[in-house]
Design brief:
- This protein has 292 residues and is α/β, with parallel strands linked by helices.
- It has two domains: 1-123, no CATH class; 157-292, Histone deacetylase domain (Arginase, Chain A, 3-Layer(aba) Sandwich).
- The protein contains eight helices and eight strands.
- The protein has helices spanning 25-36, 51-54, 60-70, 94-113, 143-153, 169-174, 223-241, 267-284; strands spanning 4-6, 42-44, 119-122, 158-162, 181-188, 212-217, 245-249, 289-291.
- The longest helix has 20 residues, at 94-113.
- Bound molecules: zinc ion.
- Zinc ion is lined by residues 164-166, 251, 253.
- Zinc ion (ZN) binds at residues 164-166, 251, 253.
Length: 292
């Protein structure tokens, strides 16, 4: 059975301009690659997230400013909200564009929570740096956290797994005190790389204590050590936490040719990581997983 793939041409609207590294061309390249590899794709059109859905994790004061920036208004206080920085510049329609990506991840989560699908691939999204009142690191709204919020509201226990080379800080902080959300991020150490967090002592607070896990890696870590610590850290955590569903941020920037970081994974490692994660989903989460 083919895995549903959530995609909308509207994802192309999330575009910070030709000079910016986070180019939507990568989505088209991925679609081309999947087609050339002969994978049968079952496309599902997402619904755009509403303002209320975005507000399930973001503060009103922040959303109001994203909307104003999106309409072309300017204010010196945008900067306090991370809006209009070099990493996350303002572009017309940024609110609507970001809500398309949130909607895609939310559509994927709804398909899983309703039992319509077990595994879903959402081609956009994965905007793990956005915080409740802060745009950061190419991320305006945090689609992952909106989806996680939906899943926990259905009474599901969520294990969030982040293999992006950068720490999944936004998701970690948004759910930092929540006992029903395990966050697990493996990344290049914050001593060397943006966003500077993701240290082993960040373990959650209040009822969430012990449920936020970080594996910071030294620069130049290669396939074998990466896979070893991923398995050593993640498997016992999932066995202990017993999630109902996995939400996975599949950032591929730990690849050795990525110019923004210094972890040295090859495609050989990725060819092992994903079967491993699917095996974990089957063993510990009833086969349920959302991949972004
Ligand atoms: Zn990244």
């Amino acid at each position: 059975m083919s895995v549903p793939v959530i995609y909308s041409p509207q994802y192309q609207l999330y575009n910070f301009g030709p000079q910016h590294p986070f180019s939507p061309v990568r989505l088209e390249m991925l679609l081309d690659l999947l087609e050339h590899l002969g994978h049968p794709l079952h496309f599902v059109e997402p619904a755009q997230a509403t303002r209320e859905e975005v507000r399930s994790v973001h503060l009103e004061s922040f959303v109001r400013r994203v909307e104003a920036a999106s309409r072309g208004e300017r204010s010196p206080d945008f900067e306090h909200y991370g809006i209009g920085t070099a990493d996350t510049p303002i572009f017309p329609g940024m609110d609507e564009a970001a809500r398309w990506l949130v909607g895609g991840t939310l559509t994927a989560a709804r398909m899983v929570s309703s039992g319509q699908a077990k595994e879903v691939l959402q081609l956009g999204g994965g905007l793990h740096h956005a915080q409740k009142d802060l745009a950061s690191g190419f991320c305006v709204y945090n689609d992952l956290s909106v989806a996680i919020r939906h899943l926990t509201q259905q009474g599901l226990r969520v294990a969030y797994i982040d293999i992006d080379v950068h720490h999944g800080d936004g998701v970690q902080w948004i759910h930092y005190d929540e006992p029903g959300v395990l966050t697990f991020s493996i990344h290049e150490s914050g001593r060397y790389l943006y966003p500077g967090t993701g240290h082993t002592h960040e373990i959650g607070k209040a009822d969430g204590t012990g449920r936020k896990l970080n594996i910071p890696l030294e620069p130049f870590t290669e396939d074998e050590s990466y896979l070893e610590v991923l398995q050593m850290g993640l498997e016992p955590a999932l066995r202990w936490f017993r999630p109902d569903v996995l939400v996975v941020q599949c950032g591929a920037d730990a690849h050795f040719q990525d110019p923004l970081a210094e972890i040295l994974l090859t495609t050989q490692a990725y060819a092992k990581i994903f079967p491993l994660l699917r095996q974990y989903a089957a063993a510990f989460a009833g086969g349920r997983a959302v991949y972004t």
